[in-house]
Amino acid sequence: MSTHDDHEDLKASTTPGYKPTAAKTAEEYARLDAEDESLARWKASLGITGGGSAPATGPKVTVLSLELHSDTLPPGKTIVLDLKDGKETVQNTKKEPIVIKEGVEYNVRIHFRVNHSIISGVRYLQVVKRSGIKVDKLEQMLGSYGPSPDEKPYTKNFEPEESPSGMLARSGTYDVKSRVQDDDGEIYADFSWHFKLAKEW
């Protein structure tokens, strides 16, 4: 159950005076300023063409998984939170927290699909707490994307971070709240997961 503090912690930063524009479908963007060459190139980079598009139903974005990647991971080991399985994988981390090696560089990757429309201003928010005290907050923009071609997912790699180290860092479990939302406040994923630090992966 989320609390008022959780909502405040996961509040996205805002730019004073900025107001998001009204959302448009991919088809509306395709028709927009069709004679503008630079805009046509931008639309092509997002996979927007003049042809018809699928009906705009359901969520604009489906978050498929969250992955922790590090060059220090043993060969063949992956750390992936599957968000398609009804969050069962995520819930299991409460009993069996994900193990992250202390003092190593790692980065978060998010895999998602854009079902329809154009997304922009979509961001990933993450708050890490230990014993109820906030120890870290991450906010990363996903960028602008058109509908996923052939339903293939997009992958966004976030900037590398270094995991804490030391006996104090290794004590206890870290509780993470993650959210994917856009500038309009529409939430596409909202989930909690848990990890602990150890001397080895």
Describe this entry's structure for a reader:
Keywords: Cytoplasm, GTPase activation. It is found in: Cytoplasm. Pfam families: Rho_GDI. This is E set domain-containing protein. By secondary structure, the chain is an alpha+beta fold. The mean pLDDT is 83. Strands 1, 2, 4, 7 and 8 form a 5-stranded antiparallel sheet that branches. It has a 5-stranded mixed sheet with strand order 3-10-9-5-6. The chain is built from 5 helices and 10 strands. The protein has 2 domains: 21-55, no CATH class; 65-201, Coagulation Factor XIII, subunit A, domain 1 (Coagulation Factor XIII, Chain A, domain 1, Distorted Sandwich), CATH 2.70.50.30. It has helices at residues 4-9, 26-31, 37-45, 88-95, 167-170, and strands at residues 61-69, 79-82, 98-101, 105-114, 119-130, 133-145, 154-157, 161-162, 174-181, 187-198.
What are the salient characteristics of this protein?
five-stranded mixed beta sheet; elongated; 201 residues; 10 strands; Coagulation Factor XIII, Chain A, domain 1; 5 helices; alpha+beta
